[in-house]
Amino acid sequence: MDRPASRRRPLLGRLPVVLLALAASAPALQAQTLVRGAPGETIRTAGGMVVSEHPEASRAGAEVLAAGGNAVDAAIATGFALAVTHPSAGNIGGGGFMVIRFPDGASTALDFRERAPGAAYPEMFVGSDGEYSSEIHHRSHRAVGVPGTVAGFDKAHKLYGAMNWERLVYPSVVLAEDGFELSERLAGSLARFVERSPYEATIQAYSRDGVPYAPGDTLRQYDLAGSLRRIMLNRSDGFYRGETARLLAEEMRRGGGMITETDLMAYRARERAPIRGSYRGWEVISMPPPSSGGVAMVEMLEILEGYDMESLGHNTSRSLHLMIEAMRRAYRDRAVYLADPDYVDVPIHELTSEAHAAAQRATIDRTRASVSSPADVAVGTESFETTHYSVVDADGMAVSVTYTLEAGFGSGIVVPGAGFLLNNEMGDFNGRPGLTTETGLIGTDPNLARPGQRMLSSMTPTILARNGELAAVIGSPGGRTIINTVLQLVINLVDHRMGFPEAVEAGRIHHQWLPDRVSVEEDALSGATLEALENMGHTVVVRGRQGLAHSIWLDPLTGERVGTPDARNPDAGAAGHR
Ligand code: DON
After folding, report:
1. What is the pLDDT of residue 95?
2. Cα–Cα distance between 160 and 5 in angstroms, integer?
3. Do 245 and 149 fall within a single domain?
């Protein structure tokens, strides 16, 4: 593990709960040090910075930084706050990944991906008619994996946090109890979510007895506040044992799910060695399996390093063609080889090697599209709700977090009495052994549901460094598109020498081997470029936005942190301190 023995600053003494209330509700003391961007606005500061999907969550993290917490502390506070203010993806009922780079350049990664319950088996998504059921796989109590977020934050804090745990959870308790103002976007998305929900606890959590909230209304979540309070007082035991665990397991029994209190007690977050690669002298630090993100991105970068991407130009047909061919090959390898490394031998070293990249390049024709072969495996679509946030503290410690409930609002199931949504991450396992279809299912062996296994992910929280100095903290939601969104951020920075926000704003493309087509963000490419790609043999489809890359860039001239919420969500917000 690339981790020095002790990186922990001594804990600031444990505040009694009464004092905590005072500490957390004293923004006036810290106000002069806080800088807060309007939603969507880029901000600069020489101090600490948090950029996330919601300004209140960024503020919760920035206040922790201003009060002396480090980047891990701020990431934990922001993560808990997002569980309140960004219910479609922020969570305590889901899981994710955290990549950390320390000021001395060492790095580590925390894996708090959900796991299959002990009763899981590869055929568990087959219905009573003997057929694979997408409904069971993605939209049922069986779609719920054992959540990892709370254990992940607890472990991150024990290993690397500097501040008192209660102080980190407290802002989320306040946000849940006192409420926060609903934006037009969030009010609209909650209304649509509640309207189609069959679950009474879900309807109660996100509407007034079934009547949707309007923009500007205050959303208060008392049951969620209770769950967060139990976490504040008892750390991960406040979630995996006791009242919350009991309520969760009870809901599983009621709805035909598999997670038991034993599964909850058995959950452990894991510390793992990050994937490290280099691209034209830049250092790339990213998430290892059970995410496919770091391996696939480094494989693509190794392939592309063999071409002069800079002179081919940004988003020209010739540079895009090479990127698409790299994507096609890395996503094929992803489908064939990648899964939970605790269960399957993943050839990480081989896939990210220069020799493998050279072999891949040898199969690329610079003027013609290759053909993906569905004879091997076919790949399905993924939904688009996850959330990424980035943190850098005043000392230069950097934290990149992507976490998720899988689909928007996950399984849609709120645990009655506990007020939080459960994930539907079991949908990231392959659906059924051997079931590989043109329409998008993979049936390969490595990523089948087995007791305790973690499902394969595409989340790619990443940190870049250059000449030994922190350069950027990046990542994105977007299911399988995530890896390509992060890849394009790297190419924009390194090859096309863009600063932020240009690198984040630039239009994105995606190819995932199968289905064999390139999707292109609306207005990303000119008509002539689209035509040139088609003439090379690519099938091109135009789609809506790709990704939400809430990033921090270190200005090499001034050393300032440039907080860049991805303007594809105008509600996202940066907050920092001077
Ligand atoms: O872990 C994964 O790769 C997916 N469950 C992430 C889902 C996702 O990004 C959806 N959203 N934007």
Report:
1. 98
2. 11
3. yes
CATH number of the domain where residue 529 is located: 1.10.246.130
The pLDDT tens digits for 505-539 are 999 999 998 889 999 999 999 999 999 999 999 99
Residue 72 falls inside a structural domain: yes
Domain count along the chain: 2
Kind and range of the H or E run holding 203: helix 200-206
Q: Tell me: do 372 and 395 sit in the same domain.
A: no
Ligand 1, atom 9: closest residue by C-alpha: 479
Residue 239 domain flag: yes
Which are the contacts of 517, defined by CB distance < 8 A and separation ≥ 6?
511, 538, 539, 540, 541
Q: What pLDDT is recorded for position 165? A: 98
Torsional class of 331: left (φ above 0), alpha (ψ -120 to 50), beta (otherwise):
alpha
Nearest atom (ligand 1) to Cα of 548: 12
- Do 168 and 252 belong together in one domain? yes
**399 and 368 assigned to the same domain:** no
Terminal Cα distance for the chain, rounded: 33
* Pocket residue to mutate for ligand 1, from 383, 424, 430, 508, most atoms within 8 A of Cβ: 383
Which residue among the candidates 45, 202, 386, 387 is catalytic per the annotation? 386
pLDDT digits (tens, 9 = 90+) for 170-193: 999 999 999 999 999 999 999 999
Task: Clarify whether residues 121 and 201 are in a common domain.
Answer: yes
* Ligand 1 centroid – CA 449 distance (Å): 17
284 and 394 share a domain? no
Q: Which of helix, strand or coil describes residue 391?
A: strand
Pairwise CA distance, residues 453 & 290, whole Å: 9
Residue 66 and residue 177 in one domain: yes
Does residue 434 lie within any of the structural domains?
no
Contact 138, 131 (CB under 8 A): no
Measured from the Cα of 482, ligand 1's closest atom is: 9
The answer to whether residue 485 sits within a structural domain is yes
Q: How far is the CA of 459 from the centre of ligand 1 (A)?
A: 7
Is 394 found in the same domain as 365?
no
Distances (CA, A) of 326 to 95, 153, 167, 331, 383: 29, 34, 45, 9, 23
Does 8 have pLDDT greater than 60? Answer: no
Q: Which residues line ligand 1 (CB under 6 A)?
A: 382-386, 404, 406, 425, 428, 457-459, 477-479, 482
Query: Which pLDDT score, from 0 to 100, does residue 473 have?
Result: 98
Q: Indicate whether 344 pLDDT > 60.
A: yes
User: Would residue 436 show up in a list of annotated catalytic residues for this protein?
Assistant: no
Pocket probe mutation, ligand 1, options 98, 459, 545, 569, max atoms within 8 Å of Cβ: 459
Query: Residue 326: which domain range?
Result: 272-377+458-552
Ligand 1: which of 403, 482, 569 to mutate, judged by most atoms within 8 Å of the beta carbon? 482
